[in-house]
Amino acid sequence: MQNHAYRPDIDGLRAIAVLSVLGFHAFPRLVPGGFVGVDIFFVISGYLISGILLAQSEAGNLSIPGFYARRIKRIFPALSLVLATTLALGWCILSPDEMSRLGKDVAASAGFVSNIRLWGESGYFDHDSASKPLLHLWSLGIEEQFYILWPPVVLLLARKRKTFGVLVPVFTAISFLSSLWLASRSQNAAFYLPVGRFWELLAGGLLAAHGSKLRPSAARGWCGAALVAGSVFLLNQEMLFPGWWALLPVAGAFLLISAGSDTWPNRRLLSTPALVFIGLISYPLYLWHWPLLVFARLILFDTPPAFVRVLLILLSGLLAWLTCREIERPVRGTPGWAVPGALCSLLAVIAITGLFIRAPDPLALLHASMTNGTGLNGLTQDGCGMLKGHENMTYCRSDSRQPPVYALIGDSHAGALFPALVRESKTGERWTLLGKSGCLPALGITRLAVRDPDVARDCASAADQLVHAVAANPQLTTVTIAIAARVTGTLIPELSEGLPPNYARTGSHQADPNAVATGLSATIDLLTTSGKRVVLVVDNPALPDPTNCLRSIRGLGLRVNPACSISRTRADADYRNYRALIADLHHRHPGLIVFDPTDLLCPRDQCRVINNEVYWYSYSDHLSDTGADIVARALNGALPR
């Protein structure tokens, strides 16, 4: 067996690993592949722990309970502190829903199954991950799951040297091939599931078992350093990782460790005092840095400025040093099972607290103004009186007080506006609503690019059904069209929600850039020839999700997201192509009444989600009751009598 005396160069390699991760999290453009620091950690951990287990097995004093007691004293103190602090910060900063999710993440992290929980959620590189304060603890779950299984394997096989020498490489190969197979089918599964990650720890175990057969080699050290540096600075999150790319950091760490502590790169580079110091505090540094970065992002509603990120990394270093000096080292020196037992109890209490913790909502009254469709009190009834069956319609409702003379047709934007029109209507000016969510009431066209082909067929069928029903109803004098601009495919990609302008004439499979204008024009033609006045409501500007516009920080008051207010100039620019579509329809149909509520929704040339301490929006481009009431009062007043 190899001599497993303390090696400062391995602490230096730990420092490289943790600094890579910190660099990626704080400055991803500068350190695009820094996430491979975790893979380097895996190799180091597999090497060190396997070396200890193998040495104890060879000496005949390997104790599985003793191993777990040491792991508890090594891992639990800093983890408990960080989890408790994260819960406390979450209580001060997060909304009730966010706090509930954090509590479950705390419980999963305390149970070392964070990777399993994250597997079913968004990927590590997805945008949503930037708001998860405990995202980074997936790697701790992988390690501890490995160390539940690995010591018994060593105990059973290590004394049978030939069997051990054959089976461990086989285990490593199986895990690596599993990683490749998973990566080809689900990056999330390959990233988070232990079976596809164990090979990285086993690579370190192989080195611990057979490294004594290798002579020290500076050439191996330089090759390893080149592979590690290339991984950190040349890989990026757009690549399929792990998989084949994971070989680079794993091989780099393997070669650096195998080079020997006395070779030039290991002695002169990795063993420098600064790197050794960072390596010694690398575990608490890894724990602390990510929650601080995430909470700063949540408070500021965006990535913090560079100088704030630098300060947070420095603060993480200070907290890591204090954690190591005041908590980790005193605990690790204690004998017996009293301390491990107390640490297990403490972590269990933190996990249970996470599962049951509930945070009050200081913005509850304000959030109540985000609703839409309230306050009707029986003013409407199901059914619109024109269709034998309306199973294909999302919306088919009428005013219950009088037969309607006004019809509103469209998609979910019509659905959001209808309750307000009913509330604001007068005797003899009642409304009915017909529409299908996500669908244009446009004749003779079909959307090509949809996830489900049935959706395209249903939209075309619904449009034909509702437009002809409205046109054939002699009681209806005016028809108002309200549709989401994004469904027309005219908005910039950031606002279109993945709905490209791929519409075609019915019967054709060739995208036609003029299809939307043609289809809406056909609808207007049919309605006007049927004796209806036709009104087209210009869509309201799209703004950020209202739930991300305010944050109440206990003790510091409210913070308002500046992105929740955009200028009228920007709103007009974002909707330039959409407004060109409206102008084209108006040109084709001079009798068309175009009602534009943008001036009402953007007072003083600013479009805001919140005005006068009330939400005007219930969703990014859906109006709340308050916003809809403002539009409905003006629209009801503008309609010809």
Protein architecture, described:
With 641 residues, the protein is of the alpha/beta class. It is 56% helix and 9% strand. The protein has 25 helices and 17 strands. It has a seven-stranded mixed β-sheet with strand order 1-2-4-3-6-8-12, sandwiched between helices. Helix 2 packs parallel to helix 6 (138-157), helix 2 (37-59) crosses helix 9 and helix 19 (453-471) packs parallel to helix 21. It starts with 7 loop residues before the first helix and ends with a helix. The mean pLDDT is 88.
Topology (elements, then pairings):
Elements: H1 8-26, H2 37-59, H3 64-93, H4 96-110, H5 114-119, H6 138-157, H7 161-183, H8 187-192, H9 198-210, H10 218-234, H11 247-259, H12 264-270, H13 273-280, H14 282-300, H15 306-332, H16 338-356, H17 364-368, E1 380-382, E2 395-399, E3 406-410, H18 412-424, E4 431-435, E5 445-447, H19 453-471, E6 478-482, H20 493-496, E7 503-505, H21 515-529, E8 533-537, E9 550-553, E10 557-560, E11 565-567, H22 568-574, H23 576-588, E12 593-595, H24 598-601, E13 606-608, E14 610-611, E15 614-615, E16 617-619, E17 622-623, H25 625-638
Parallel strand pairs: 3-4, 3-6, 6-8, 8-12
Antiparallel strand pairs: 1-2, 2-4, 5-7, 9-10, 11-13, 14-15, 16-17
Which features does this protein show?
25 helices, two-stranded antiparallel ribbon, 56% helix, alpha/beta, 641 residues
Short structural description:
Helix content is about 55%, strand content about 10%. It has about 650 residues and is an alpha/beta fold.
